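Researcher: Next entry in the queue.
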Amino acid sequence: MQGDAYWSLDGSKNIEKVYCCLNASALDFAKSGQLLLNGGEWQGKQLISKEHVDYMITPNAAAFTDGQAQV
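Model: Structure for this entry, 71 residues:
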């Protein structure tokens, strides 16, 4: 990433909100997306294993009711 990014914290316990609230630039979000599109590879280096990227981008059908998830 080119710039600093910040997690928003839960005010009561100062714990990171991992479900949302990553503050970063649009360019850095685009690079993150490109990294996923490249299967975890960036400029010839495997930064995230392909298996983990596949896990990250595969919908968890069990978390949806019938007809909600497009698997």
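Model: The chain has two helices and six strands.
Researcher: Noted, moving on.
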